[in-house]
Amino acid sequence: MQILVATTPEEKEAVYRLRYECYVEELGWKYDKADQSAKTLRDDMDDSAVIYYAEDKGKVVATYCVHFGQGLVIPDKWRTHYDLDRFAEFPQECLSFSSRLIVTAEYRSTMVVPKMLVTAYMESWRRGTRFNFCFCRPRLIDLYERLGFIRYKENIFEPTQGYMSPMVLMSEDADHLWAVRSPFLRVCKSHRPDSRAARWFDQTFPEARHSTAKQTMTAEEFLQQWAQAMDARTVALLSGFSPEQIQKLFMAGTVLQCKAGDKLLREGEAGHEMFLIIQGSVRIYTTKADHAESLITLMSAGETFGELALVSRAKRNATVQAATELQVLVISQEFLQSAMRSMPDIAIKLLYNLASLVGDKLRATSERLLDMMRENVLLATQLARVSAPAPREAPTEASRPATISLLKTTPL
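^ that's the sequence the OP posted. Answer follows.
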């Protein structure tokens, strides 16, 4: 397998086709700039990017895009998403921006991602980059945190891609890279890193490192902090789990903090993860043709949503919005596939409980539909009775027309 940089039109075209395959065909995202006939997807910023790709047996199997700050015209959207005004004391050449990390399905459990990202990380050192920014879907947060990225600000909503978490990697933060066992650590150590940027970051974003605390949390600390919120006796998804198994599940998932009003899932989008509510509540609704919202239900701590996306490619059938400040555990398809190999006992229990939950929800949905059908039949029957014309009464002798009476009394 080779890690290369796309420079020729043919190489870039192969990358654009992989983007289309992943984002448009697999995830169902809608891009105005997607070329439906050629099945390619390119960005306006591609001309200023370094586009890495992995090639195996003559096929492009992964790609990753980095925009280095020197000479870059940074879009206003990025300045807002990443809160770049707070990094103003650093020259622009110290910044870089990552996007479009894509891996084909058969290579998602291989070393292709670390190899490609280490190649880009080495180039960051050569160019003097101190901060690398990205935003990702909830299911990928754990991957980026294990690389060394840190969530440092509130989540954002990207119209095309949905609910995203902005993150930053400090190239010289050797202590953090060691703490999370990042594959970047050896490269970092070989360059004699300076910790001044990391100290500035901690002063500017003092709460940021809390998001990665679970990476270094002991079993005792975990049980003390999360035992009540994730009690197997009250959380149906965790039924039958031991405290140790709950800890493993928690460590492999991602805890996401959300603001009231945040839309975690959108009706009609593709998904690859489910959510367990740890604290707070959500409202689940659908949108009618006239854009009016139809509330389906409210959910609170211990309940789950998005389960079908964990085991299928089904698109979301409703929108999920945080009704309060919210904390959820994100469980992705990637975790489930990994658990089947490394933690089969947890995977089996999780799938069994998941099947029970989905069955209960389908049963409840069927009962609601039957109730609605019965109500509709009753309403239709009542309307038919009200709108039906009154039955005509048989005419009496007094009410018959005169001509008919004459026919009876007058001889022909």
